C-alpha cells in the first residue's frame, strides 16, 4: 500500500500544476474560514459572520464541511489531470512494463484519492476546532463533539466524488473533456431532478426516493445546506410566515448509496483498464 501511494505522490510532486492546485485548495479552505471571522464595517453597514453563530459548536461541523465540500473541484482537476497525464506521458504503460499490475494501478489511484479525502477531513476537523474554540459561545465537551457525523459525511462524499473523477479520467483520457463531461452530467441530473419532481404527483418522499440514487445528488444529500439552521435566518423566515422543517441528519442509507456508486466507479475503472490496449 505504501509503495503504491509513494509512486503516486512522486508523480504528483513532479507536476507543478498539481502542486499549485493542491496548495490552492488548502489555502482556500483556510481562507474561507478566516474571511468569515473578519469584521466588515462600511459606514452604517456592519457585518461579522462569526456573530451570526456560524462558528458555534456543534453547528460549525455542519457549516464548515458544507463550505469545504463546495470547493472540492480543485482536487477534482488534480485527479482528472492525474489520469490524463498517465496517458499523455505514457507512464501508465511504463508502470505496467515495470511490473505493476492493472489491479495495483487502480488500487494506487483509489488509495491516493482516499488519502486526499482523509487529509481534507482531518484539516477541516482541526480548522473547525480552532475556530470553534475561538468564537463559539458554547464550549462544553458534549456540544463540541456533537454532530461529528458531518465529518464522516464529508469524507464519504469526497471519496465518492473523487472516484467518479477517476473513472471519467480513465474513460475519456483528456482532462478538459472529462471535466466538461462532469459538468454536463451535473446539468443532466438537475434537469432530470426537476422533471421527476414536476411529473410525479405524489409526496416528497416518492420523488426523492428516485432522485437520491443519482450519483451527484446522492453525494449532495450527505450534507444538506446549513444556512436555514441559523437563528437569524429562522427569525426572518418566521417574520414572513415561513417555517423550515428540513431533515439535516445523516442517514445510513445515504452513506450506503454513495458507497455503492464509489464501488461501481472503481470497478468500472478497472474494467476499462482491462479491456484497453495500452
Describe this structure in words.
This protein is an all-alpha fold and about 280 residues long. It has one domain (about 1-275). Helices cover about 75% and strands about 5% of the residues. The protein contains 13 helices and two strands, in the order ααββααααααααααα. The chain has helices spanning about 1-15, 15-35, 60-70, 75-90, 90-95, 100-135, 140-145, 150-170, 175-200, 205-210, 215-220, 230-240, 250-275; strands at about 40, 45-50. The protein has a two-stranded antiparallel ribbon. β1 and β2 (about 45-50) form a beta hairpin. α4 (about 75-90) crosses α9. The longest helix has about 35 residues, at about 100-135. The radius of gyration is 21 Å and the shape is globular. It starts with a helix and ends with a helix.
Brief overview:
The protein has 278 residues and is mostly helical. The protein is built from 13 helices and two strands; from the N terminus they run ααββααααααααααα.
Amino acid at each position: 500500500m505504501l509503495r503504491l501511494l509513494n509512486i503516486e505522490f512522486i508523480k504528483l510532486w513532479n507536476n507543478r500544476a498539481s502542486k499549485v492546485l493542491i496548495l490552492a485548495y488548502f489555502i482556500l479552505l483556510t481562507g474561507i474560514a478566516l474571511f468569515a471571522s473578519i469584521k466588515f464595517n462600511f459606514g452604517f453597514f456592519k457585518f461579522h459572520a462569526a456573530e451570526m453563530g456560524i462558528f458555534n459548536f456543534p453547528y460549525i461541523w455542519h457549516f464548515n464541511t458544507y463550505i469545504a465540500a463546495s470547493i472540492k473541484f480543485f482536487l477534482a482537476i488534480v485527479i482528472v489531470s492525474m489520469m490524463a497525464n498517465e496517458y499523455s506521458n505514457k507512464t501508465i504503460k511504463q508502470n505496467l512494463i515495470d511490473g505493476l499490475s492493472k489491479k495495483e494501478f487502480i488500487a494506487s489511484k483509489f488509495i491516493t484519492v482516499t488519502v486526499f479525502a482523509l487529509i481534507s477531513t482531518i484539516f477541516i476537523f482541526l480548522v473547525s476546532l480552532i475556530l470553534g474554540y475561538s468564537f463559539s459561545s458554547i464550549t462544553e465537551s458534549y456540544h463540541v463533539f456533537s454532530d461529528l457525523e458531518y465529518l464522516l459525511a464529508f469524507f464519504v462524499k469526497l471519496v465518492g466524488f473523487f472516484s467518479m473523477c477517476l473513472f471519467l479520467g480513465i474513460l475519456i483520457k483528456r482532462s478538459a473533456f472529462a471535466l466538461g463531461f462532469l459538468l454536463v452530467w451535473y446539468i443532466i441530473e438537475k434537469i432530470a431532478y426537476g422533471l421527476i419532481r414536476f411529473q410525479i404527483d405524489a409526496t416528497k418522499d416518492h420523488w426523492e426516493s428516485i432522485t437520491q440514487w443519482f450519483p451527484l445528488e446522492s453525494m449532495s444529500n450527505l450534507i444538506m445546506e446549513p444556512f436555514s439552521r441559523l437563528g437569524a435566518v429562522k427569525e426572518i423566515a418566521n417574520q414572513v410566515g415561513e417555517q423550515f422543517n428540513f431533515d439535516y441528519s445523516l442517514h445510513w442509507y445515504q452513506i450506503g448509496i454513495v458507497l455503492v456508486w464509489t464501488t461501481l466507479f472503481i470497478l468500472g475503472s478497472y474494467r476499462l483498464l482491462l479491456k484497453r490496449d495500452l
